[in-house]
TrEMBL record:
GO CC annotations on file: oligosaccharyltransferase complex
All residue ranges annotated as the OST48 N-terminal domain in the record: 28-274
Gene source species: Scleroderma citrinum Foug A
Pathway: Protein modification; protein glycosylation
PANTHER family cross-referenced by the UniProt entry: DOLICHYL-DIPHOSPHOOLIGOSACCHARIDE--PROTEIN GLYCOSYLTRANSFERASE 48 KDA SUBUNIT
Name of the protein in its database record: Dolichyl-diphosphooligosaccharide--protein glycosyltransferase subunit WBP1
Domain OST48 middle intervals: 288-429
Domain of life: Eukaryota
Amino acid sequence: MRFLVSALVSFLALAGNAFARSSTGDSVLVLLDPSLKREDYSKFFGGLEESGYHLTFRAPKDAQPLIAEFDVPNFSHVILFTSETKTYASDITPQSLVGLLSDNTNLLVTLSPKQTPLSSLSTEFSLIPPPPGTPLISHHPARPEPATLIPVHVTESPLLSSDIPPVWFSGVPHALGNSPYLVPILRAPAESFAADSLDDTGADAIFDASQKAGEGLWAGSQLGLVTGFQTLKNSRVVFAGSVDLFSDEYANKLLPDGKASGNELFAKEVVAWAFQETLALRIDSTTHHRVDELAPPEMYTINDQIVYTAYISAYDPRTGSWKPYSGITDMQLEFTMLDPHIRITLPPVAGEPGKYQVQFRAPDRHGVFKFVVDWRRKGFSFLQTATTVPVVPPRHDQYPRFLSAAWPYYAGAISTSVGFFLFAALWLAGDVRDKRKDRKTE
């Protein structure tokens, strides 16, 4: 009986892993504003549950379940559908949410035109919210809907499919700061702007700003509607300017041309990226050795021929496993001591998935060096690794007996010796002949 129970538990655990979708875990805490109804987002939440995620719902002011205990997160991901909430329980603060990212917990945050604690949280990630009460407005294309309900074209992005239809959006935009870790996902239409009224009051000021700087701060496609941020630890957070973007109403609403909107597919792919299902990479291992050897040496000698190898895999959400990945073509290896002495391309090896290899000569400089791989591209997990190795000069018995570059010196030394020998021989011989002549004269 115990054996059957143990086997059943093991089977359920394996089944859970088989249907795992995220590379970091499947537990999700959903903070749902009391003014929102769960059934209004049934497609979004139902899609997550069908994918294998375990959702736990909680009101923002509830004390249980705790988002973290003893500085250890209780959930792998957190969704904050609390755009109207101004007060939270004591365990939910902007600082605690930032701390979750340090523990590799991913966040999905929706913003509001009103001033809330989440507005201040967004500024920590180089997002600039507009003044309170200024939603996004666009009068194009012509449509019966209000100017605040806009069909937005989905631009090309590495984390989205190329065939997503336009999505309905009604909410607040944000300007993007200069952080290199921002990942723009959905931008505002070029003809849209943020304003506090629908009668175009203040349109002249926006037009003047656009004439001076190309686009006003709160107008045009430079505004972000959905933006991601990836930390150095590869945890991810997504800020969306509208909670309605994920609703059933917008998913079912037809576009002005009569076609279905792309809200459902767009929301699914955004969450897949935020929860590290897609574009999740890692370095499994690295090796280095001399040519014609297999084991890494304790130290290298200057001018050694070195082979460096890295093995990289990508997460496959369909199987819940990591598989070898050879799709990177612009990775570089640095052999550095303070500054890179060698920077060389680290290409994939043909016919060996996931293997990247390069051969190079150690510089004519001894010291403590590092093999450094630091690959960062927007949307993809950052790949970073560093291995320290010493490089020493040759030992006394490793130098060659004769150096080709020293032949002029060898020739000079030999010619000097030969010349001295001939001079001495001639001088001694000449002295004997002089004495013989003197004797004959007497």
